[in-house]
């Protein structure tokens, strides 16, 4: 017999037969969370495609949560994209994310879901936050303009979790991952994040024999990259150990200049030509390194280094290309 979820306390393992709903289960993060939960022994992990249940639709979301009656919800559903997509479509990044979060939190409350983890992003912090960025720097300064609409939506999500905790005593939490990558990522050249975009650009240049690859911006911004399988492991760890209104950072504690990332991707895919920089493209935030001391104090550390994660993600990209032929 497993313990009922209502008796869960921080530090106690969650019962492996508890029903978990992973919102956004077909995306980069959601699919990794589903894989990790199943590997960790969870026997009742439920996902849903947006074509089946549109989480921007309040009635559809409420009906689905009522019928599914999960004990745990992981909100990995979001409209996401890289610097160009965020800058080009602020309406969708604001409204889709506000709707998804409000619908999910409200439906989870009506369905009496005891444990919920909402995922945000490191872009919620001020553009010039002191580095590494501590959780308490939230709302202490102006946001990076290329992604302020998305950031405001995610800050509203944090406030949603905090409000349900305060008003209804829910043991709900939120976590803020740094820049993510891994299998299942979006490799669209205009809409994706930097790491998958560079994998594709360098790969295509090597295959076609192109002499140069163009990298956006100056190459000087620094970013921290977390493999999505590590994030998934952190999500379970947080669901089992963390019960606090403050969002908690999830990262690796190290960052690299985009120029170094570009060289690493070039080496990984075997591109030996020249790297040029298109400074008409925005750099975005100069640096976004998370302070992960609170997460480390809970006993969690990532296990996948950037070189290793990049190599396996490139392998996945090649397999996908093969499968598409
Ligand atoms: O990953 P990325 O699009 O997002 O860009 P952000 C990171 C850095 O890589 C920027 C540069 O300085 C880009 O100019 N970069 C260089 C490139 N070449 C490329 C390229 O080919 N494609 C892309 N996409 N970038 C996003 C936010 O910010 O990060 C989101 O817009 C979210 O809201 C996400 O927070 C994690 O790190 O700048």
UniProtKB/TrEMBL annotation:
The record marks 121, 123 as: Important for catalytic activity. Coiled coil: none annotated. NADP(+) binds at residues 24-30, 119-122, 154, 177-180, 193. Its EC number is 1.1.1.271. Keywords: Isomerase, Multifunctional enzyme, NADP, Oxidoreductase. The keyword Oxidoreductase applies. It catalyses: GDP-beta-L-fucose + NADP(+) = GDP-4-dehydro-alpha-D-rhamnose + NADPH + H(+). This is GDP-L-fucose synthase. It comes from Actinomycetospora succinea. The gene is fcl.
């Amino acid at each position: 017999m497993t313990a009922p979820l209502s008796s869960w306390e921080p530090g106690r393992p969650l019962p492996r037969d508890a029903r978990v709903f992973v919102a956004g289960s077909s995306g980069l993060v959601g699919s990794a969370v589903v894989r990790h939960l199943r590997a960790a022994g969870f026997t009742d992990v439920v996902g849903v495609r947006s074509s089946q249940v549109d989480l921007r639709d309040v009635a559809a979301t409420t009906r689905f949560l009522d019928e599914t009656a999960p004990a745990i919800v992981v909100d990995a559903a979001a409209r996401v994209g890289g610097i160009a997509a965020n800058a080009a479509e602020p309406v969708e990044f604001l409204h889709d994310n506000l709707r998804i979060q409000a619908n999910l939190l409200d439906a989870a409350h009506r369905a009496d879901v005891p444990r919920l983890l909402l995922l945000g992003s490191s872009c919620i912090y001020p553009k010039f936050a002191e580095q590494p960025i501590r959780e308490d720097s939230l709302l202490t300064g102006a946001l990076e303009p290329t992604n302020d609409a998305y950031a405001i939506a995610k800050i509203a999500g944090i406030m949603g979790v905090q409000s349900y905790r305060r008003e209804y005593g829910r043991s709900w939490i939120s976590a803020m991952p740094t820049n993510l990558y891994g299998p299942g990522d979006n490799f669209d050249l205009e809409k994706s994040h930097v790491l998958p975009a560079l994998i594709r650009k360098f790969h295509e240049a090597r295959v076609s024999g192109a002499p140069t690859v163009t990298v956006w911006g100056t190459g000087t911004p620094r970013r921290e990259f977390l493999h999505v399988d590590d994030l998934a492991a952190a999500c379970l760890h947080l669901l089992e150990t963390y019960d606090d209104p403050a969002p908690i950072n999830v990262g690796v504690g190290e960052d690299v200049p985009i120029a170094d990332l570009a060289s690493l991707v070039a080496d990984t895919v075997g591109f030996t030509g020249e790297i040029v920089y298109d400074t008409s493209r925005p750099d975005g935030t100069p640096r976004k390194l998370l302070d992960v001391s609170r997460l480390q104090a809970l006993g969690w550390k990532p296990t996948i280094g950037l070189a290793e994660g990049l190599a396996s993600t490139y392998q996945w990209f090649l397999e996908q290309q093969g499968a598409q032929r």
